[in-house]
Amino acid sequence: MSSQTTAPVTPAEHRILRRAEVEAKTGFKRAHIYSLMKEGRFPKALRLGVRAVGWDSVEVEQWIADRLNERA
């Protein structure tokens, strides 16, 4: 009989990811990310300023986790 210990679940820290980070995490380029957003299949960007957007890190991480769970 094996005894497994699990780490306590801590709430994820929200931070704003800029496009380069989102591209690095997903492996997608800008055009594909925006195409998925338009189709409602990727988290929406947050307007940070006139020419700046970012994504909620928790939403992006959850999106990635959901894609990995689809494989199972």
From TrEMBL:
Pfam families the UniProt entry points to: Phage_AlpA
InterPro entries: AlpA, Prophage_regulatory_activator
PANTHER family, A to Z: DNA-BINDING TRANSCRIPTIONAL ACTIVATOR ALPA
Protein name: AlpA family transcriptional regulator
Organism from which the protein derives: Thauera sinica
Organism placement in taxonomy: Bacteria, Pseudomonadati, Pseudomonadota, Betaproteobacteria, Rhodocyclales
